[in-house]
Design brief:
Blueprint (H helix, E strand, L loop, with lengths): L2 H11 L35 E9 L3 H10 L8 H4 L3 H6 L2 E6 L2 E2 L13 E2 L2 H9 L3 E3 L9 H15 L2 E3 L5 H5 L2 E5 L2 E9 L20 H13 L4 E7 L10 H12 L1 E2 L2 E2 L3 E5 L7 E4 L2 E4 L4 E3 L16 E10 L9 E13 L4 E4 H7 L4 H14 L10 E2 L2
Parallel strand pairs: 1-2, 1-15, 2-5, 3-4, 5-6, 8-9, 9-12, 12-14, 17-19
Antiparallel strand pairs: 1-16, 7-8, 10-11, 13-14, 16-17, 17-18
């Protein structure tokens, strides 16, 4: 396939697979529903919602250079990079990403591996794509100290993105991030296994959320007390380049999903990142765990043996439909579970919605191979039996 044909398909993908668009709010219209009595004196009916979540946004130097080229020499424009998945993201009631890196000053300097400092306009592109917020706790959160966190969260606030996992103040670290979706209040908590050995900034032990079981459960219960109907937990965990979840993922996932209080689970879903490769989805103790969504945006990736590994440019978008509880005091239920295979096409510098691209050109061997690899990984722990399906 020629580069010109691929470019045409990238544009076509933006018109396909708009993910349950009917009745869904857009990225710019997610204000809380009016929950008071109606004119007739009855409370409005509870309304379900769709959630989408995606993997690591990891702008290597080549990715930054692509955004500079897309900006035509005037800064960095990451919006075209996400255009192929924008219909999926913007159609959801709540859309969450994982921003693995921190931001520099507007004019740089910027850097890729091993200490990432990204252009702040990444946040502008995430907002334009339809994301409502992101987890910001990763092993790279302290790559530029407290100043990097401040610049990143300042930019998020400026463009209107929520964030969880890092903080500028102790009060911010203690505050629960809440979103309105359907008639639900949804809490988002985020943690990382480590910060690449960087210590917490002086006087700021709360700057990055660290992955500790007791802390996660306590925060989830605090989120319930703050009014959350649904509690989502993002975890930056796992073993890099390993498709299978490791022992920590399995044991911690089991413990967190088993934790209950007040007659319902403390946590309603776990969303994993970090491993660079797609990992399985699995229902554990009645709760969905996405062990790893893989990288959404990344440059050319090399595994620990130094070999080029295409899996580092593969990922999935999780899409879940939540329904209101059947009775007071019960949990919101996932009534539909899907995944959308995606790929970072380095020749185009674009995130490709693989089902949409293959619908337009079923003969693209590179996309077919990526789609098969993502699907195999996602379903590797038997999630199909619990109703998880590949989006069409």
């Amino acid at each position: 396939m020629t580069k010109r044909t691929r470019q045409a398909l990238a544009l076509l993908s933006a018109l396909l697979l708009p993910a349950s668009a009917a009745g869904c709010s857009t990225a710019g219209d997610r204000t809380p529903a009016r929950l008071g009595p109606t004119a007739a004196g009855t409370a409005p009916a509870a309304k379900g919602f769709t959630l989408v979540a995606s993997g690591d946004v990891l702008p290597h130097t080549s990715v930054i250079q692509r955004a500079a080229a897309d900006a035509g020499g005037d800064g960095h424009d990451f919006r075209p990079m996400f255009s192929g998945v924008k219909p999926v993201i913007s159609a959801a009631d709540l859309a969450l990403c994982h921003m693995e890196t921190i931001y520099g000053e507007d004019d740089g300097p910027f850097s890729g591996y091993p200490a990432f400092v990204s252009p702040p306009t990444v946040a502008d592109a995430l907002k334009d794509t339809g994301y409502d917020g992101c987890s910001t706790a990763s092993n790279h959160t302290l790559d530029d100290g407290a100043e990097g966190i401040e610049r990143t969260l300042d930019r998020f606030d400026k463009v209107g993105l929520g964030h969880a996992g890092s903080a500028r103040t102790a009060a911010e670290a203690a505050r629960t991030t809440l979103y309105a979706a359907g008639s639900a209040k949804v809490a988002h908590l985020a943690y990382t296994y480590d910060t690449n050995g960087y210590p917490m900034p002086d006087g700021r032990p709360w700057a990055v959320g660290l992955m500790r079981q007791d802390k996660i459960i306590a925060d989830a219960r605090a989120a319930r007390k703050a009014g959350a109907d649904v509690v989502l937990v993002s975890l930056h965990w796992g073993t890099e380049w390993q498709t299978e979840p490791d022992g920590t993922q399995l044991s911690l996932g089991k413990a967190l999903t088993a934790s209950h209080s007040g007659g319902r689970p403390d946590i309603d879903m776990i969303l994993g990142t970090h491993a660079h490769v797609p990992q399985a989805y699995e229902k554990v103790n009645g709760t969905w765990i996405v062990y790893g969504m893989g990288d959404q945006v990344a440059g050319e990736m090399f595994n620990h043996s130094g070999a080029r590994d295409m899996r580092g440019n593969y990922g999935s978008i999780g899409r879940f439909t939540f329904a209101p509880p059947a009775a007071p005091g019960q949990r919101w239920q996932v009534v539909k579970a899907e995944f959308v295979p995606q790929m970072m096409d380095l020749s185009l510098g674009r995130v490709v919605n693989l089902p949409a691209a293959l619908a337009a050109d079923p003969g693209d061997e590179e996309y077919e191979s990526a789609d098969e690899a993502v699907t195999e990984a996602v379903l590797s722990r038997g999630a199909a039996k619990d109703g998880l399906k590949r989006a069409r």
